[in-house]
C-alpha cells in the first residue's frame, strides 16, 4: 500500500516537490522472508517529470548494517531517459498518527542522480530495535515518507542556469564541525566547546544578553556552564546551528527508551534555560511520546520541577489507565509516592 501526497510547487526556485508514503504491512513477515541486501520496492511515483522508487531494506542493505541492527532506505531514479537529475530529499519514519517523527528523519542535500537506477539514501536510516518497539510498530506495519524536491534549470532569454539551493542550514552545520572563526569558549561538564557569538545571539535571547548585553561575560575568557552535562550542551549547540534535533545513538541493550527520555528531558531543561522555543517543543513532544511505566514517575517529577504542563498532562493521561498505573506502582515505591503527591497537588491546589 502506498500513498502520494502533493505539496505546492516552489515556483520561485524552479523546483517540483512531492511527498510519497510507502506502507509496509506485515513487516515481521516481510523481514523474515528476505535477507540482508534484499529490498522491498515501492511503486513508481512521479516528481518533477521523473519517475522515482523507494528501496526499503528491513535487514539492512549489506552485512555490516545487518549486523549493526539497521534498516536501510534509499531513493532511486526510475526514468529510463533521464540523465543528471538534480534533487534533494528527506526520508522520515511516520508515527502512529501518520506524522513524520522529526527525531527519525534524515535529509540528503542536493545531489545528482546520473541515470536510471542511480540511488542515494541511508544505510543506517533507523535501528531495528527502535523501529520494532511496540510504540512505533502499529499493527505490524511501517510507514515511511520521502519528501522529494527536483531542482530544474531555469531558462530566461538566451541565458540558462541553476538557481543555487537554499542551504544555509547545511553551511551552518559545516561551520559547527569546523568551528572556523569561533570567538567564544564554553566549559561544560569537563569539556570545552568553541562557538560563534553572533550565531548564539541570533538563536537565543539569553545568549544574546550574556554575550552582548548587560550580562556580557568578560571578553576573551571561557564561559563556565554548571548544572549541565557535556553531551546535553553538545546537542544544544547542534540544534542552534542546524535547527535539527540530534537523536540519542541507538543501542541494543533494551534501555533506549529510558536513555532517550532522560536525554530529551535534560535537553528540554537546557532549551528552557536558554529560551530556544523550537527545541523546547521538540523535546517536550519526545518526552510525552516516550512515557511508559518505567519512566512516568521521573517524567512527572521533571514536569513539576520545571513547570512543563504538557508533560504533566501526558503523565496523568497515561496513568488514567488502571493497567498503566498498576505497572508503574509495581516498579517502584518511589514512583508510587511521586504519583500520589502529584495527584494530590493537582486535585487540591493551594489557595
From TrEMBL:
CDD domains: BTB_POZ_BPM_plant, MATH. This is BTB domain-containing protein. Residues 17-148 form the MATH domain. Residues 182-249 form the BTB domain. GO terms for biological process: protein ubiquitination. The gene is LOC123091848. Belongs to the Tdpoz family. It comes from Triticum aestivum (Wheat). Pathway: Protein modification; protein ubiquitination.
Amino acid at each position: 500500500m502506498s500513498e502520494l501526497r502533493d505539496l505546492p510547487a516552489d515556483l520561485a526556485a524552479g523546483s517540483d516537490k512531492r511527498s510519497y508514503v510507502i506502507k509496509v504491512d506485515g513487516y515481521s513477515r516481510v523481514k523474515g522472508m528476505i535477507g540482508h541486501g534484499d529490498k522491498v520496492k515501492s511503486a513508481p511515483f512521479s516528481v518533477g517529470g521523473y519517475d522515482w522508487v523507494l528501496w526499503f531494506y528491513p535487514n539492512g542493505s549489506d552485512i555490516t548494517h545487518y549486523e549493526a541492527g539497521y534498516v536501510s532506505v534509499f531513493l532511486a531514479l526510475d526514468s529510463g531517459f533521464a540523465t543528471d537529475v538534480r534533487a534533494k530529499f528527506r526520508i522520515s519514519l511516520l508515527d502512529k498518527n501518520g506524522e513524520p517523527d522529526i527525531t527519525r528523519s534524515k535529509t540528503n542535500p542536493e545531489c545528482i542522480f546520473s541515470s536510471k537506477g542511480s540511488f542515494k539514501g541511508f544505510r543506517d536510516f533507523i535501528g531495528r530495535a527502535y523501529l520494532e518497539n511496540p510504540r512505533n510498530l502499529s499493527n505490524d506495519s511501517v510507514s515511511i515518507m520521502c519528501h522529494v524536491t527536483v531542482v530544474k534549470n531555469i531558462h530566461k532569454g538566451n541565458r540558462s542556469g541553476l538557481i543555487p539551493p537554499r542551504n544555509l542550514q547545511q553551511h551552518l552545520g559545516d561551520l559547527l564541525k569546523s568551528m572556523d572563526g569561533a570567538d567564544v569558549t564554553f566549559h561544560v561538564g569537563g569539556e570545552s566547546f568553541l562557538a560563534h557569538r553572533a550565531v548564539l545571539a541570533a538563536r537565543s535571547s539569553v545568549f544574546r544578553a550574556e554575550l552582548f548585553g548587560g550580562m556580557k561575560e568578560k571578553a576573551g575568557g571561557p564561559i563556565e556552564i554548571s548544572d549541565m552535562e557535556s553531551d546535553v550542551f553538545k546537542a544544544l549547540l547542534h540544534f542552534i546551528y542546524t535547527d535539527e534535533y540530534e537523536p540519542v545513538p541507538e543501542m541494543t541493550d533494551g534501555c533506549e527508551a529510558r536513555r532517550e527520555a532522560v536525554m530529551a528531558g535534560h535537553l528540554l531543561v537546557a532549551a528552557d534555560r536558554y529560551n530556544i522555543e523550537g527545541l523546547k517543543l521538540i523535546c517536550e513532544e519526545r518526552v510525552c511520546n516516550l512515557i511508559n511505566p518505567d519512566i512516568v514517575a521521573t517524567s512527572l517529577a521533571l514536569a513539576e520541577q520545571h513547570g512543563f504542563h504538557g508533560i504533566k498532562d501526558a503523565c496523568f493521561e497515561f496513568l488514567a489507565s488502571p493497567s498503566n498505573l498498576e505497572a508503574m506502582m509495581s516498579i517502584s515505591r518511589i514512583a508510587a509516592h511521586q504519583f500520589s503527591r502529584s495527584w494530590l497537588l493537582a486535585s487540591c491546589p493551594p489557595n
